[in-house]
Each structure stands twice: as C-alpha cells, then as structure tokens.
Amino acid sequence: MNQLAIDNLTFAYTPRQTTLKDVTLKIPTDSWTLFYGASGSGKSTLMRLLAGLLPKYGGKILQGKLQLPDGLTVAMMFQDPGMQFALDTPQHELEFALENLQLPSSEMPARIEHALKFCGIEHLCDRQLTTMSSGEQQRAALAVLVAMDTDILLLDEPFASIDNHNRSLLIHQLTLLQEKYHKTIIVADHDLHGYRGLAKQIIHFENQHAQLLDAAASDALLKSADQLAATVHHVKLPTASDQPILTLKNVVIEHGNEKLITANDFSFFKNQTTLLTGATGTGKSSLFKAITHLASYQGIISYDGKDSQKIKPRRYAQQVGYVFQHAVDQFLNVTVKEELALSLKKGQNPYFDDEHLTAALRLLGLSKLQDRVVYSLSGGQQKKLQLLLMLMMGQPVLLLDEPFSGLDFHSLHNVVDLIKTSQKIYPQTMIIISHQLEGLEKLIDRHVKLADGRLSYREEF
Amino acid sequence: MNPSFKLLLVLIIALEVSFTRHLTINLVLIAVTIIYLLTKRIRPRLFGWLFLMPLFPAIAVFITIAWFSPGHDYFYAWVLFSRIYVYVFTGAAITQTTSPLELTRSLEQNLHLPSKFAYGTLAAVNLIPRIKMTVKTIRAAGQMRGIYLSWWSPTLYFKAILHAITWSDQLAQAMESHGYVEDRARTSVHQIALTTRDWLILIVSIILIQIITFALP
Questions:
Q1: Over the stretch A107-140, which tens digit does the pLDDT of each residue have?
Q2: Is B130 in Cβ contact with A130 (below 8 Å)?
Q3: Which residues are within 8 A (CB) of A370 and not within 5 positions of it... i.e. 6 or more apart?
Q4: Does A237 reside within a domain?
Q5: Residues 240-299 in A contacting B (C-alpha not used; CB under 8 Å)
Q6: Between residues 121 and 180 of chain B, which touch chain A (CB distance below 8 Å)?
Q7: Arithmetic mean of pLDDT, A67-73
Q8: What are the CA-CA distances from residue B154 to residues A346, B139, B144 (Å)?
Q9: Of A230, A258, A291, which residue is a domain's last?
Q10: Contact residues for A274 (Cβ-Cβ < 8 A; gap 6+)
C-alpha cells in the first residue's frame, strides 16, 4: 500500500460538535500534499489524527478509520515553534529524540551532525532554544525530524510565525527531502501563496468536509492566492495636520539575539486607523509588546508627548489597550455575562450604553450565549467577544493583533461595521495587525509596512 | 560523584540534620561542602550570595530561639542557625556541579526512575521563561480592564493553571511526536557511570555522619 487511506472518518472533540464529517481521502506517499482551509476548518485535527496524537489527546472517532502504510513512521512539526521541545538546546533535543528511537549511541553523533548541517544550524546546536528566533526554532524542529529519518513528515502551519528568508529556506530543504529522500510531506496552511509548482495535490477543508481538488482547481486556487497577495488598495500618507499620539525615538526592539526593529523617529497618529503589515516574524507583535511594556526595548516610546515609561502603569493601561492575538488571553472571568459586566463597569467608551450593547451583541451573534463559559465558545465567537470587550473599555489607543483571524466574511463585515459606528461617536486611535486584508478597505486610514527592520508609511496595501 | 547518589546523600543529610540537635555535625558538614565547592571552582560572587542569602532567616531563627523562647537556649539557636546553612550549602553542592539534564539522565539510568517523570520534570523546568511571560500578559490583561491583579489574586492563578493545562498537553504531544513512548526502553547517548567509588563515597559518608552525630558529644 502506498497511500494514507482515510475512510469515511467522522471526528468530534465534544459530543455536540463534529470537526470532521465523513471524510474519505487517499493521500499518496512519496509526494507533497497541502491541507488548505480557514483556521478551525479541521486541517490540524486531521494532521494530529494522522500523527496518532488524536484521539489519544482528546476527542473521539465517531465512525470510519485511518490507515497508514505498514512500517512507515510519522513525525509532526507544530505551529508554535516554542512548544515542541522538551529539552533546552537543539543538541539535547536531537539526542532525546534518537534515544527514544532506541538508536545505538555509536550512530548518534553522525546522524545529529547530518541533521544539523542539513538545516544549517550547526552553529546553534548548543544555544538555548528559548533565545532563538522563531525561524531558527522551526529549523531546529525540522532537524529533529530529519535526524529521526521518519517517512511521513506532517507540518502544521510551520511558517505561521517565521520570516520569508527562513520560509524559503525550509521549503527548499523540504523539497530536497521529498525529491531526494522520497519522504511524504504534508503541510497545512491557510495561505497558499508561494506554493505554486511545489505541491502535487491540495486537499480543501470546509464545513467539516475535506476533499481532494483536481489539478485545474488546485492551480486556480494557487494562482488566485498569489493574485490576492498582490491585490492593491490605496490609502493616504500622513499629512502635516496629523497629530502624533505614539512616537518612537531611537527605539531598538530585539528578540533573543536578533535585532527586529530600529525606529529613529516614527509616529502613529491620533484618531486614525492604521494598518500594520509585514512578513511573519518581522516583529509586528513585538512592537505591540514594546508599546504596552510587555517586552523590553531601548530608546523612548512616548504617548501624547510624554515618555510612556514615566506614566504610572495603571494609568497607562487606561490609555493604551492591547487586543491580544489569542482571544483567551484577554478573558478574566468565566461566563460571557461576567465579562460583559466587567467591561460595562470599567469601560470608558460612551457609545456602549444598554441599547447599543444589546444591538452589538445581536450583530455579532453573541446575544444568546451570555451564560456560556468563555472558554467553550468557538474560535470565531471568542474573537468577536474579545473585540467587543476591548471596544467597550475604550482606551484612546487600541492595538489590535490579528483581530479578524478565524472570522468568516460575514462576521468580518459586522465587526468592521461595529468598529466604524463606535468610532463615529467615540473616535479612537487604532493600530491593526492583520494578514487578512480583504474587507478592511473602509476601515483603514493609513498603512505602515514593517520591512528590513524599519517602519514606513505606504500609499497602498 | 554520580548525580543521583549526590542527590541521595544530600537528602539523607537533610533528613538526619532535621531530626538531630547536633552542632558539631552541622559545622563539619558546612566545612566539608565549602571545601567541596572550592575544589569545583565556584565563582566568588556566588559564594558571597550563598553566605548572605540565608543570613537574614538564620538570624531571625537565632533571635527567636535565643531571646524569645522560654528556655533562652543558645545552643539550640546555634544548631538552627547552622542548620539553615547546611541546607543551603549541600543544596548548592548539587545545583552548582550538576546540570538538570545530567541529573535527569542519571535518575533514569542509575535509579531507574520512570523516564516519563524524569523528562516531564525537565520539560517543565525549560518552560519557566514562558511562564514568566504569561503571568505578565495576564496582569496586563487585567490592568487594561481596570483590574489590578496582585500575586495572590485567584484570577491570576486560575488563568495560569488554565495555561499550564494547555501546555502540559502540548508538551506531551511534542515529546510523543519526537518519538517518545511511555514505558518503552530508550538508549542513551551519554552513559552516566555508577562506579564502586560512588558506592564507597556514599556509604563511608553516611557512616562518618553517624559516628560524628552519635559518638561525639
């Protein structure tokens, strides 16, 4: 048998909600396959099922089965680069993995050396993993899979947090693994741009179903992804009358030993909605963390003309709000009702009186969920609730880190409407990081691009 | 000395010292561990810390017993004072000469501790930087909603525990995807030796401690 066979599979994490339904697929070995679909569509779930991590770590197969070719080994690389190492350095992690495979110790040094060299990280072998950049961590993770010499490599959104240089480096090495060593490679990604000519087949995940696309459909999808990445919207550059609200003076932001951002004199302007873009891993989130003092930086970040470090933390937190990338980080209570009550009590946005709040909840489809535990909501519902809670708080400056990820187009439209309506009554400065650009045209006033460690205003996005 | 045996010896010492009132043995143990640490070339700065850090609790204990206990027992006060230093220096004798990974490997190979326990603990140690960042994030989330979360706040712990549960799950999955299977034999790239010399040091040390504790006044 030279294929991974998935037969009529139905899988659910909770009895009420199936994640995959009647999925039947045949994935050929010795080839490169892409899992494509929005976040939450079940790509990761199928991948974890193939890796044997599910249903062991949660959920239940309700019907059907998966079958892997006999004797082939599987290993998986995760989306979050920092969460896949049990040990402290690449060298130790590699030793750990090979010991697990019961490899005789005499064979280990050669294997380890080869794997490190293959991924170009010989010089990092004794570095602490926690001090490495996301790109370096993903290369270390790939090195482990190479050393383990597994036949099937599953990569779950492996490029989600790394820069283009490391992305192309990894893709190149993966191509080599596939073509030269005949590995089976499966990559899950929500963004298909840049995959043309690499992937042999695409499996599309939607509405709990997954199906293999034919060659024409695959090609059309890859092409439109490349095109979409190249679609252009026009915005204005800052004008002389714009008032600076956040100013970065001689600021340097680092991650590990890597210099991410240098800004000698850069300002974000009052009551404007600024889109912040840049390749993954360039440091957009790090900038937000620096502004909110969650990460250290050199230089001066001033708020409304005053050094932000000289403002009392409690006061500063009422001026600059941070809508975290992971919605659950924002929650402090247990139920939706309690969260809303807290924001209503402490919030300073006058738009959200009882009437408007009720309307907003209806608009976002949250009105009937008030007694639900926030952690039991779906990803999209959590995102919408999180955004509403922070809008109600009404800090004059709001930093939003991927606020639209996991939202379908309809929800996105409603969320944008809500922000616009609130802004009319209560203007706020917003800086938004988003890889999702479609549907944002009417929200965005300015565009800042982060590239090569520098921030600059652009006329298009 | 073998890391596991070192740990074992230190635990035995800690227990014995806790249940006896003997000044001589405390002083001997402190002297021996200082000499041991000196031979291992410990940084002078660290030595300074090892002396200073326990000083305040040690003095506090001394004052309590010597001045405020009914018997004003100065001898017992000195015993407790030195006992704190025994704990600190014997502890340092392990942490400053053995890496967590060495100890883990030794526990697995020599004492046949289940690898699940050994590597699970090690993975948790490697999570510490992440834990710090998370606590910071949770407190920031609170402040931005108008709540100040102090370090004893239940909300902080609730959120932290929630994160810990997610992490432990992710970590277990990561270990498994790197070929780890519970209770299956593993090879080891670095053999941690357990020699006759280790046995001798352990046994002789224990005997010597008994002699000093019970034979000397």
A1: 999 999 999 999 989 999 998 888 787 778 888 9
A2: yes
A3: A335, A336, A337, A340, A361
A4: no
A5: 292-294
A6: 122-123, 126, 129-130, 133, 136-138, 140-148, 155, 159, 162, 167, 169-180
A7: 90
A8: 19, 12, 18
A9: A230
A10: A268, A429, A430, A431, A432, A444, A445, A446, A447, A448
CA A61 to chain centre: 27
What's the CATH number where A36 sits? 3.40.50.300
Are B140 and A292 inside 8 Å of each other by CB?
yes
Whether A249 and A361 share a structural domain: yes
A295: left (phi over 0), alpha (psi -120 to 50) or beta: beta
The answer on A150 and A273 residing in a single domain is no
Cα angle: A171, vertex A175, A178; to 5 degrees: 135
- Which residues, listed in sequence order, are joined to residue A6 by a DSSP beta bridge? A25, A66
Name the stretches of chain B with pLDDT < 70: 217
Give the minimum alpha-carbon distance from B178 to chain A in angstroms, rounded to a whole number. Answer: 5
Cβ atoms A107, A114 nearer than 8 A: no
Which residue from B101, B129, B140 is facing A92, i.e. has the nearest CB?
A: B101
- Tell me whether residue B18 is exposed, middle or buried, using C-beta atoms within 10 angstroms of its C-beta: 0 to 12, 13 to 18, 19 or more: exposed
- Number of separate helices (H) and strands (E) present in chain B: 10, 0
CB A425 within 8 A of CB A396: no
pLDDT at residue A160, rounded to an integer? 67
pLDDT by residue (tens digit) across A179-235? 999 999 999 987 787 788 777 799 999 888 999 999 899 989 888 887 877 778 899
Count: domains in chain A: 2
A contact test, residue of B115, B134, B178, B191 with most A CBs within 10 A: B178
> Are A213 and A270 in the same domain?
no
| Rounded CA separation A116/A145 (Å) | 11
Q: Do B187 and A99 touch (CB under 8 A)?
A: yes
User: Which residue type is seen at A272?
Assistant: Q
Is the interface score ipTM higher than 0.85? no
Domain that holds residue A414: 244-458
Q: What is the pTM of this model?
A: 0.81
**Contact between A301 and A308 (Cβ < 8 Å):** yes
What are the phi and psi torsion angles at A10 (to 5°)? -125, 125
3-state secondary structure of B49: helix
How far does A78 lie from chain B, in Å, by closest CA? 8
Please state the rounded mean pLDDT for residues A19-24. Answer: 93
Q: Dihedral sign, CA of A276, A280, A282, A283?
A: positive
CA distances from B110 to B9, B62, B105 (A): 15, 40, 8
